[in-house]
Amino acid sequence: VQQGEQKPFERVYDVSSGDPHRVGMPPLTFIRQVLAACLYPDLLKDDSLPVDVRQRARTLLDVCEGGSVGSYSLTYSGIPLIQKTIAEFITRRDGGVESKPENIIFSSGLERALSLVLHLLSGGEGQTRTGVLTPVPCPHTLPMQLDEAHLEQVSYQLLEEQGWALDLAELHRALRTTRGRCETRAIYISNPGNPTGHVQDRKTIEEVIRFAASESLVLLVEEVFQDSVLGQEKRFVSYRKVLLEMGEPYSKRVELVSLHSLCTAGMGECGLRGGYMEVINMDPAVREFINILPCSGSPPILPQLALGVMASPPSPGDSSYETFMQEVLHVERTLSHNARRACEFLNGLPRMSCVPAEAGIFLYPRLDLPLGITEQAQMLGVEPDVLFCQRFLEEEGVCVGPGCENGQDDDNFHIRSAKPTALICVLAPPAALEEVLTRLRSFHLRLLSSCC
Amino acid sequence: VQQGEQKPFERVYDVSSGDPHRVGMPPLTFIRQVLAACLYPDLLKDDSLPVDVRQRARTLLDVCEGGSVGSYSLTYSGIPLIQKTIAEFITRRDGGVESKPENIIFSSGLERALSLVLHLLSGGEGQTRTGVLTPVPCPHTLPMQLDEAHLEQVSYQLLEEQGWALDLAELHRALRTTRGRCETRAIYISNPGNPTGHVQDRKTIEEVIRFAASESLVLLVEEVFQDSVLGQEKRFVSYRKVLLEMGEPYSKRVELVSLHSLCTAGMGECGLRGGYMEVINMDPAVREFINILPCSGSPPILPQLALGVMASPPSPGDSSYETFMQEVLHVERTLSHNARRACEFLNGLPRMSCVPAEAGIFLYPRLDLPLGITEQAQMLGVEPDVLFCQRFLEEEGVCVGPGCENGQDDDNFHIRSAKPTALICVLAPPAALEEVLTRLRSFHLRLLSSCC
Ligand SMILES: Cc1ncc(COP(=O)(O)O)c(C=O)c1O
Ligand SMILES: Cc1ncc(COP(=O)(O)O)c(C=O)c1O
């Protein structure tokens, strides 16, 4: 799009990333009030903010060095009281399976935490280079993160025809391909799946843990969408709960890193860049190393406070409870309505099909593009779904993600054999989503009629 | 210090790092008000906040995606309008020597930006490993950052007897030592000096630039204390101004990275973790690479907004101007009073001497420790100044930094020949500083009398 060029649309919609505020979802009031009061404690002097907001802000300021969000936290792991809050949240969520505060490590976003772990895993050259089993499709930032940490991506294909379920036989197959190619030392899991929306069941999780144990793999589990399982059929079960409930030898031996972030469906606070990881069975020397690793630095304070609030929201009886619950419910309802609506809409279009999402904020429709487009893409030297997305943006002002970014081939992630897909974030105000879908239909139909 | 142990002091003072809020310096009201309003825009609905705060918050929210600080910024460099604000600030500061917005790169703290650049410089093994000329003393986090990026530290000694000035002959000497040891590709400069407080003059800067040009070194210049030159004798001159005013070939050829952070004396907003770098004459391919490097991720929004406010404070006539100027003046007065007072005090103690700081927030006194302590330290296998600091903390509840962390030896930074020093942050409320000094005197005199 050229600067100043005339376009047939007034507003551009960017639904290519999991960033709900960008497309107009409002933040949760309680969290913003607490953070504002921590930044500017004069707000605590009168009663313009709810009493529980003021209490919470005071509690949080008490755990900041010198009572200010402007001081560094003392350790690279973060503020001890917030580590404790997170550990309690995890313990509660997992029905009493205890989480230890010292296993919680904060960072400026999940991406940062993951990058730290990936660098620790990295090593070797050629045949001894570290490999990481990676789902296809996977979060779109992952292939570059692996590459940047000099890790070999060992792809395992998720089963689209089974709602993007993970298949154990495929893990074994993928691992066999690495003989003489690299040393696979970890497996990356996204559950609920980004971008697939698939929710793994306990049986699958147990199988994966046994597989990781027998192959001595570290489990890297991203669980950002734990708060957004849609409908009643599925339930989120955490890998750590299953692992610790499996008992010995698994519970004492399998190394697990569980990652979470402020960019959940409910919070949507991507711009704050706050994340944490819980590390289980990590070698104490490695754990100690993380604590002193200068490249990580001490994590920023406000995102830690925000994570503390996420882990300990208002309770019944608190003055903010009603509003908070209403806002959370509003997000949940919007999300499940949108996910259902968009999926039906997409499946109603010719040469497009979409697996319903069980969780998360993405749809990941398959594009059965006509030969004309595929050939044009080949001529231009781009992936067909990249061309689709570029033209959609230019002609209709909507930015969706080319699915190839979620599923690069392992050997050379510029070339790929998989079929074209698109990534659409559906956590948006319904009117915005409707506009996106309408534009998608006119673009798609125009494209098909021009090619066929 | 054991948990629960009885101690002869009630409060612990930590003056070991440049973290003024920790020891009770208050934040600047304007910045906190603006950030609070950006987080919680309901504060814009009435007139409880000053009108210029509300205007500023609206302007800043306008440049956030979707009008929310909860959205990612679009690029890994940061928000374009804030890049522009920073570039204008630099241009103004440097008397019109133009800075380009696209050369500004934000990150979650200076440390992060530096770490990114160090990783880009890193390469080679053995004799071809990249080396970085590093001052001794240097910022205490630097040796670990170099080590973590697998860079060889090539130390050059600053001249204590000349107020910690940089000496060109010493640069040449240091570089000669690296023949057959590593390939030196950059020189790190801290100006005004952390921890020395020395302010470089234009002549020195020109010499260093010529040296960098002739030896093909990248200039890595940390200029955090540019806002805190004490007294009237010295003035801060930026490396970029001198470089660009020197004309060709220098102005077009020497690669320069200038680093700045929210943890200046005036702001003291360490916990927000906001920094930026300006890159000059950087290879376009490298610049492009930084823009897509996933390990950096998109920088958090609030620290960018804070940097924008730092670069564009209230102007005469704005409703917050008076308060803002009073607060800034208060910091400046406190700092210069404390720096003078502490320096005189330290020089009044036996076996202690201190170079007066021309800028910044640290004093870095030399400790002429008695043989008894040095031998005890040797027996315990620690540096003498580490032992000094440990015992001072245990006996008097004051945490100062062992100077050895600012000046490790290059070959093996666990062993060091230099004389013991201590690092003291003097940006603290005067009463707190007085308490620190009183405790330091009683500890130091007790130590001397027990040993001699
Ligand atoms: C692999 C990966 N990286 C990064 C993110 C974004 O998280 P954050 O903004 O906390 O870095 C996600 C979110 O799901 C992710 O799955
Ligand atoms: C080398 C170095 N690293 C880090 C810092 C701290 O800055 P920040 O908190 O922005 O990372 C400084 C500040 O002077 C520094 O000189």
Automatic annotation (TrEMBL), chains A, B:
Cofactor(s) required for function per UniProt: pyridoxal 5'-phosphate
Q: What class of enzyme is it?
A: transferase
| Keywords for this protein | Aminotransferase, Pyridoxal phosphate, Transferase
Which part of the chain is the Aminotransferase class I/classII large domain?
A: 65-403
Q: Which InterPro entries match?
A: ALAT1/2-like (IPR045088), Aminotransferase_I/II_large (IPR004839), PyrdxlP-dep_Trfase (IPR015424), PyrdxlP-dep_Trfase_major (IPR015421), PyrdxlP-dep_Trfase_small (IPR015422)
User: SUPFAM superfamilies recorded for this chain?
Assistant: PLP-dependent transferases (SSF53383)
Q: In which pathway does it act?
A: Amino-acid degradation; L-alanine degradation via transaminase pathway; pyruvate from L-alanine: step 1/1
Q: Which Pfam families match?
A: Aminotran_1_2
**Protein origin, superkingdom:** Eukaryota
Question: Catalytic activity, per the record?
Answer: L-alanine + 2-oxoglutarate = pyruvate + L-glutamate
Name any Gene Ontology BP term.
L-alanine catabolic process
| PANTHER family from the UniProt entry | ALANINE AMINOTRANSFERASE (PTHR11751), ALANINE TRANSAMINASE (PTHR11751:SF469)
Oligomeric state and interaction partners are given as:
Homodimer.
What name appears for this protein in its UniProt entry?
Answer: alanine transaminase
